[in-house]
Every structure is written in structure tokens, then in C-alpha cells.
Amino acid sequence: MSRPENQAIVRAGFIPLVDCAVLVVAREKGFAADHGIDLHLSKEVSWANIRDRINVGALDVAHMLAGMPIAQSLGINHIKIPMIAPMALGIGGNAITLSHALHHELEGTGEDLQAPLSAAHALRKVVEKRRYEGKEPLSFGQVFPFSCHNYQLRYWMAAAGVDPDRDVRLVVIPPPFMVKSLEAGQVDGFCVGEPWNTLAVDQGVGVILTQTSAFWPFGPEKVLGLQEAWADANPGTLHALLQALDQAARWADEVSNHSELAQILARAEYLDVAADVVLTALKGDLKFYGGGAGRADCPHALWLYAQMVRWGQTPLSRGAEQVACRTYRPDLLASALGGELGGGPGENLPPLDGTAFDASDVPGYIAALNIKK
């Protein structure tokens, strides 16, 4: 394939997770180069590192948790910098994994662990029993305060009456350290993206209780995050990058390419995990293109903002709601793709907790949750 002589350098950060695939494929399969982008990938150790390096301009764009650009634009617990997310990098890929000991305790409750809500009720029974016996609260790992993992774990627990702030301990652990933390007994379970759930099973360390897509299947998991100022200063480069990433997402979503993709992601500079573990993870619920997986739309941003409000990370305000919505920019992706975004995301399942989310009425959703407390 021919390569343009004058390429724009774009520095992109990523965390070693299977859903960094779109960025990796864009570089490794030449899609970025074909669009005049010299894509430099930087493997980062934690989401805080991603945030900080974007903030100071050491990275131009990044593989980001879906809630990170919103929290940064609102200045929640950190520097306030306007961010945007013009596309999603995938949906699915998260799971709740437990130690064998905790899974055995849940089995002893008699609840159906195949159903997410029943499994959450099993956890409530174990939590109550441990409290009665004077034992320490269970500990669960999640990857960042503004991650879908945090919100999905909380949502799942709260649906069965487990208060994630009082009944258990939630601790932040970078994704690559989750399995070791579970093996060492530092946590009793975790919610993380692939391949770390599959690796826990492969190493005999844990049991996957449920994929979070079983109760929230169509929310974006990771997005392409960047400073709004960078987008304004480099519109042509961003336009070309989005075209390249769209092509990469299509390639990565093809099952026929998964063996090759697993081999690429397994390399030390990316996940540094055995290719067969990566391939097993790719056979799960993760999507890079189909099902609207590339769309980062306002309703997605507002659900994440609503979770930030629900769990006390930020107060409810109309102004903040508008900022959250403006952070997600599907118009930029549509422009790069000639107005074609493909099919929209599917409908999410009926809510576990009985409170449906309405993006047009965030205050009503919060009020309904508060009434149930």
C-alpha cells in the first residue's frame, strides 16, 4: 500500500484492554497511514495517567473510559478542561468476576446466579450474613471513579438493596493488576474489561459471575477522548483520524479477522497476554462496529452524568447536564463519514431496579431513585 509522504503525527494513549483494538488496528493494519496519520501509540499504566497526560498535552487523543471526558469537562475532583468524545471505541467487554470462595458463598444462598438480579440478591444475602457474623465488608475492585465499571457495579448491587458505599468496599485498581489482586486475596471480586476476566478464569483465580451487558448492553464502554482545543486546532487531522478509526473498527469487528487481531493484541507492546486468552475474550460480547458501537450520543452521556449525580460525585444542574451532552460529538464522526453513522444503538433492557432512564428528564430519573431510598 502506498503511504502519503507528509503525515500528521497523532499521539494516542491506551490502557492494555481488548477494547484498545480500534487504535491498535488503525496503526498496525495501515488505516491511519492511509489517511495521512502517523499514529504513535503510548501504553499507559492507569486511567489517571491517561487523564493527566491528556491534560498537559503529552497525548493528543486517548482510549478513554466513557465517563472521563464528561467528568473532565465538568471539572469533577480535578482540573476543568473542555473535552470531547467524537466516537465510541466499542460496547461490551465488561464482566463481574468473583473469587472462588465468594462465588461458593453466593451458590449457597439458593439464588439463580445465571440471572443478574438474582445474583445481586445472592450478594445481598451474603453481605447481610457477614455483617451478622461481624466479618469485614467484602471488597470489590473497579478501575476509576468515572468508569462504567464503577457505575455498572453500583447499579447492579443497588438493584438488590446493597448499598455500595456502606455495605461493601469499592477500591480503584488499574486493569492489569486486577487478577493479581484477586489472587492475593486483596479483593473478593472486580468489574473490569477484557481480557482480565478471561485471564482470571484461565489462571484458575476467579469465576465470571455475569457480563454487564446482561443488564446494560448498549452503552459505550470506551470513547476516543481529546481536548476540545486540540480538535479546534486540528480539524483536518481529526477528520482523517476518525475515518481511519472507522475503518479499523469495521476490520476489528469481523470475526474472520479475530485470530489475527488476537495475535496483534497479545504482543508485549499492547496487552502482553497469551493470544488464546485474547481470542477467547473476543468471542464474548465486545463489539467494535456493529450495533452502533461507534456512536457516542447525547443520551449515553446523560446516563453517565446521571450516575455521577446519583452517587454524589457532582450536584444536579441544568448547566452541567448541557455540558455533559455537548461533550459527546457524533456530528464530528458523521461529518468525517459523509453523514453516515450506520444503525443506531439498540434498546437497553428493562431496568434491574425498576427505574427507567429517560434522557429527556434526568431530574425525574434522579428523583425517582431518591424516592426509593
Q: Layout of SSEs?
A:
Layout: E1 8-14, H1 21-28, H2 31-34, E2 37-43, H3 47-55, E3 61-65, H4 68-74, E4 83-91, E5 94-99, H5 100-107, H6 116-132, E6 139-142, H7 148-159, E7 169-172, H8 178-183, E8 189-193, H9 196-202, E9 206-211, E10 220-227, H10 228-233, H11 235-253, H12 258-265, H13 275-282, H14 298-310, H15 318-327, H16 330-336, H17 362-372
Parallel strand pairs: 1-2, 1-3, 6-7, 6-8
Antiparallel strand pairs: 3-10, 4-10, 5-8, 5-9
CATH topology of the largest domain: D-Maltodextrin-Binding Protein, domain 2
CATH class of the largest domain: Alpha Beta
Q: Rg, please? A: 20 Å
- What's the helix count? 17
Structural class: alpha/beta
Low-confidence stretches: none
> How can the largest sheet be summarized?
5 strands, mixed
What is the CATH superfamily of the largest domain?
Periplasmic binding protein-like II
